[in-house]
Amino acid sequence: MYPNLYFFLKETFHIEPWGFTQYINSFGLFVALSFVLGSYVLSLELKRKERQGILTFKEESILVGEGIKIPELIFNLVFGFIVGYKVVGIFFNTGNIPPQEYIFSQNGSWIGGIVLGLLFSGMLYLEMKKSKLATPEKRLIKVWPHERIGDITVLAALAGFIGAKLFDNLENWERFIQNPIMNLLSPSGLTFYGGFICAAIAILIYAKRKNIGAWELCDAMGPVLILTYATGRIGCMVAGDGDWGIFNSAYTLSEDGKIIPGSEAIYQNAIAQGGEFSRYLISEYGSLDKIPHVFFKGFDFLPNWFWAYNFPHNVNEVGVGIAGCTGSYCAQLNPLVFPTPLYETIACLILFGVLWMLRKKINIPGQLFGIYLVFNGLERFLVEKIRVNSTYSIWGFHPTQAELISSGLMITGIIIFIFLGKKHQTKI
With contact defined as beta carbons under 8 Å apart, do 143 and 136 qualify? Predict the structure, then answer.
């Protein structure tokens, strides 16, 4: 696995990459790719709906030629300084501070901050000066929904991050109360459904303000959401960020690091090895006897790592040491686990294909989104059966937070599909 770009370049091309590449995290790279890909696909779908007359523009009044606006220049100066102070600083970090810690530390590059701050504010100043008119005038412009994708993307990113952090800390309440400030500020620990719910609320409020049909927008977002989720899970798989499944005792690691068929006895021996990994497992589950695992031998026509994986060099640095590896990210899992991010990627890409084909066949606004909710909830509910997650105790049942939310999404999706279908029939 590749926790960052440095590992990818080194192991793929057998070269010694530039030092700054170790600060380009794999997971963050795929999250960024998800937003870019999602924005492109959403743009295609919104333009299609605009051509069909399903979505239309909104006229907005703007003031042209105002000239120099001091508050905006100050904002760009401060924003540019912060970006330069941290981003430039992290590339020239000589203290080998992990990027996550560096971002939330006081360290940074004063030169980078000043240069980027002056650059951002200077470019804006020149643009304002160029567009200045002798007499500022108001103009009406037509803004189409696909032209608002930048705003929607930024809004989704901000609300999604806040929601993901909020739900993660609610799901891991005991961890949160031990150090609330650190858990709130830490860049790790994110729950997809928390981000999904908060981002959805924020986007719907924005759509209402901009007179974009809520159901039409939801229908356009359904395929996009399932696609970006698939792309994000690739990042989880590549980085080994902990979103893996329970142990599969049907496979084990050979002495040379290959994944081969195993046995229950080999699994129990690996669990009982002691050391840091065993202490980690005890801290997670309370006892080595309570660690969830199954013995599942997969189909032989697929590689062994499809059924059980060791996540070498995982970004969480969890597991046992890799022979001959020194420095950071030198751990791998043994016993092996189900690579659930891979399963989710495959499932969601298939579901994206289905939704993309259905989008032109379902004409009742909102029904496609209802189908997406069912697909999303069903996929996540099933994968939770072999994933590692905190559970709740409710009337003798022990569901995970994701199982509860995914069940709610499926029920909501079915209700939306049926309700909108009946509502449409009454109008005919």
Answer: no
